[in-house]
Design a protein that fits this description.
Layout: H1 10-20, E1 25-27, H2 41-58, E2 63-65, H3 74-78
Parallel strand pairs: 1-2
């Protein structure tokens, strides 16, 4: 997949959910995922997970999240964050 990347917004997604009678949606990164054969997967995993968590906090009961892991970087997937996220 090459740019331009697909766009997404919570507002547009909520509008579609309401139009289709969907109460709750689970966010997850689709194929090809976050690992592109370089060292950016850890950073990208944190970015998408924090964005998904923010969306869930802003719209409780409307969004859940399947967290992304920087696999095949097992050490990165198991490593605990040194900077706690805001509750």
């Amino acid at each position: 997949m090459s740019p331009p990347w697909p766009t997404w917004s919570a507002a547009a997604h909520l509008e579609r959910m309401d139009r289709c009678g969907v109460e709750t949606s689970i966010l997850s990164i689709s194929s090809p995922g976050i690992h592109f054969g370089d060292d950016a997967a850890r950073r990208l995993a944190r970015e998408v997970n924090e964005a998904g968590a923010y969306t869930g906090r802003e719209h409780p009961c409307r969004f859940g999240l399947f967290a992304s892991l920087p696999l095949p970087d097992v050490d990165g997937a198991l490593r605990r964050s040194r900077t706690p996220t805001t509750p």
